Amino acid sequence: MRQINLLPTEFRPGRQVNLAVKKAERVILALLGIYIIVAVAALAATYYLGKKLKTINVEKQALSAELKGLSSVENSTVYIRDRVTKYKLMENKDIEMKNYGKFNESLAFLPADAKITDVSISGNSVTYSVGVGSVQSFSYVLKQLADSQIYKDILVSGISYRQNEGYVFNLAMSF
Fold it and tell me: 79 with 14, same domain?
């Protein structure tokens, strides 16, 4: 079809203006294409990054739960390690049991009427109070303990006489 131009020829745009308009149209169309491509890319990136963010949040929650579990395991491990270290640092780990055994051996030297009170077993020593009915029983106990050589040192203190208990004294013995 033919184009009819009703404009007078003096108002007709020149050839350079037509070329400039055509170039401007091409630039505008190119910019519009670039804009559309960038907009689509931005929407795709937003969708992809949103999906990735959800995945990372799920992983974060799983790792947080695992970290809490490992934290309690670590606390238990530190507690056990501390106990093991303290156990290794103890000298003569079973010394109280040995002392208890020696205390039981020393009970054999007491007469039948002896009454024992205030027993303390700690470290390398045993301390207790003994009440016996007579001076002979008192001397018998001391002689038997000294002759037994169970204890390295025997300290007798607080000797007293009470009407209904007899002779009461404290024994502190060390190995």
Answer: yes
